[in-house]
Amino acid sequence: MRLRRAARVILVGAPGVGKGTHSERLLHRFPQLQCISSGDLLRNNVKNRTALGIQVESTLKAGNLVSDSIILRVISNEFHKRGWLGQPQVMTLNSSAISPEAEAYNTDYDTENEMAAFMSAMPKNTLGPSADPSASFILDGFPRTALQANKLDDLVPINLAVSITTPFEVLLDRITGRWVHEPSGRVYNTTFNAPKVPGRDDITGEPLVKRVDDDEATYRTRFKKFQETSEPLLEHYARKGVLWEIQGNSSDEISPRLFREFEKRFCE
Ligand code: AP5
Ligand code: MG
Q: What is the whole-number distance in angstroms between the Cα of residue 18 and the centre of ligand 2?
C-alpha cells in the first residue's frame, strides 16, 4: 500500500512487546517505509567489535540502557548514513558501525554540554513535516528517554508515537522462545512464528541464535528499565498530540489495528 504523506513513526513498548515484529510487518505492507532499530545498531557494533561496541557490550548483556549520549551518536550517524539529515560536517559514515573518522571526531559525549554542541552542529529538521512520503520511517527502540525524545525533536519531527502494551507474563514467555537471525535482525519464535527449518533463517538458511539478554533475570532488568523511563517519554508525545496507544496479548491482534491507523493517517 502506498503512503501519501510522510510517516515519521516511533514504536514504544516493553521489551518483547513486538516492536521488531511490527516493524517488519509494516515494512512489508508499506514498502516506502524504512526502519531503524536502535538495539540492532548497537548489537551490530558489538558484533563488529567497534570501539563503541566494546564499550556498550556489558551494558547490553546486563539489560541496562546505554547512555543517552552514546545512543544519540549512533542514531545521528545512521540518519546521516541514510541521507536523512544531509552530509555530516566531520564524519564520514559508510556503515552502521562507527567509522574511524567518527571515532576520531569524538569518542565520548559525557556531558550535556558536549552533546548539545554536537547536536547543534547538525542541520535541523532537514526533512520538514511535508517532506516526500518516500522519506518515511519507523524507529524501533529509540527514543527511550525524555532527553532522547527532545534531541530527536531537534533532528526530525515525529508525527506518530505508537505505544504498545502487553501483560508482563505474556512477554516473559515470548522472550524465552525468541530466536534471531543476527545479520538481518529477523525475529522468530518457536511457538508463534517458527522458522520453516528449525534453527535456520527462512531467507538465507543461516543459523539462528539467542540474544545474550534473553534470559529471565536480564529480561526482568530490561522490563524494569522500561517502566522507569517510559512514562515521561509517553507524556512527551502526548503533549505533542501524536501519541496513539494500543493494547493486546498478541501481535496478530495488534497488527490489523496498527495497519488501519497507518492507512487512516498516511494513506487516505
Ligand atoms: P532492543 O533491541 O530495542 O530490545 P528491547 O526493547 O528489549 O525489545 P526487544 O527487541 O527485546 O523486543 P521487541 O519489542 O522488538 O519484540 P519482538 O518483535 O522481538 O534493545 C536492546 C538493548 O539495547 C537495550 O536493553 C539497551 O541496552 C540498548 N538500547 C536500545 N535502544 C536504546 C536507547 N534508545 N537508549 C538506551 N539504550 C538502548 O518480539 C518478541 C518476541 O515475541 C519474539 O520472539 C516474537 O516472535 C514474539 N512474538 C511477537 N508477537 C507474538 C505473538 N503474537 N505471540 C507470541 N509471540 C510473539
Ligand atoms: Mg526488537
A: 7
User: Model confidence over 224-252: pLDDT tens digits?
Assistant: 999 999 999 999 999 999 999 999 988 78
Amino acid at 197: V
Neighbours of 223 (CB within 10 A): 18
Q: pLDDT digits over 29-48, tens only?
A: 999 999 999 999 999 999 99
The burial class, CB within 10 Å (0-12 / 13-18 / 19+), for 100 is exposed
**Binding-site residues, ligand 1, Cβ < 6 A:** 13, 15-21, 38-39, 42, 59-60, 63-66, 71, 141-144, 148, 174, 177-178, 187-189, 192-193, 213, 222, 250-252
Query: Which residue in this structure is represented by grid cell 562507527?
Result: 98
pTM for the full model?
Answer: 0.84
- Closest ligand, as measured to the CA of 19: 1
For residue 177, what is the enclosing H or E element?
A: none
Compute the distance between CA of residue 62 and CA of residue 59 in angstroms, rounded to an integer: 5
Q: Whose CA is nearest to atom 40 of ligand 1?
A: 16
Cis peptide before 183 (omega within 30 of 0): no
Question: Residue 97 class from Cβ within 10 Å (0-12 exposed, 13-18 middle, 19+ buried)?
Answer: buried
pLDDT of residue 155: 84
Tell me if 142 sits within 8 A of 13, measured CB to CB: no
